[in-house]
Amino acid sequence: MYKILIADDHPLFRDAIANIIAESFKASTIEQTEDIDSTLEFVKDNDDLDLILLDLNMPGMSGLQGLLALRNECPTIPVVIISAERDKQTILQTLSYGAVGFIAKSSSKTCIVEALESVFAGNVCLPADIMRLPEIPKPNNEFVVLPEKIASLTRRELMVLKNLSQGEANKQIAVNLFISEATVKSHVSSILKKLGASNRVKVVLGCADIDFSQHM
């Protein structure tokens, strides 16, 4: 079903998450890495991943630089932070670095499964206490998609972008457009490059007000 990478330096925790995924998402392929260097090396040869679950405190990680390096290496693969971190500003800052969600390591099995289902559906997932904040900063909303950049996209890329802006995951876009998932990922990479966006979250926010019917 899905191909997921668990990047965490604690073998017991990796195995626990792997068991939850295997039980809840049948037929999924689960890979594991234990530090940022092996994680970066793995994604270079595995651009078909559907999700990366990343611990913020693995060996080689310095603050959020490990997340940033991972987003630069694989901008089209969704990354969800799974960590014991409790600082709300740090959690929110991971979004500005391109993460699509945050799962606390103390979360119940049910919460973890629901968070993963939400991400696979194309949503951003955050802890309940973060969602209850009066106003959640949106560090990515300064990104604007300029009309001339939209004009540089091919018709197929526009179709992918329209689906992408609706929060759909690569698998669903492939089904909708009757193309392979690999082709979708290729189009997403091209779209990010042409629009000047570092990750798909920025594209979704930047395209919120675009009327695609005027461009297709």
TrEMBL record:
**What are the recorded Gene Ontology BP terms?**
phosphorelay signal transduction system; regulation of DNA-templated transcription
Q: Which UniProt keywords are listed?
A: DNA-binding, Phosphoprotein
Q: Which residues form the HTH luxR-type domain?
A: 146-211
Note whether Cell membrane occurs among the keywords: no
Q: Tell me the superkingdom of the source.
A: Bacteria
Q: For the modification 4-aspartylphosphate, which residues carry it?
A: D55
Under Gene Ontology molecular function, one entry of this record is:
DNA binding
Pfam families registered for this protein in UniProt? GerE, Response_reg
Q: What InterPro entries does the database record attribute to this sequence? A: CheY-like_superfamily, EvgA-like, NreC/VraR/RcsB-like_REC, Sig_transdc_resp-reg_C-effctor, Sig_transdc_resp-reg_receiver, Tscrpt_reg_LuxR_C
The Response regulatory domain covers: 3-120
Annotated protein name in UniProt: Two component transcriptional regulator, LuxR family protein
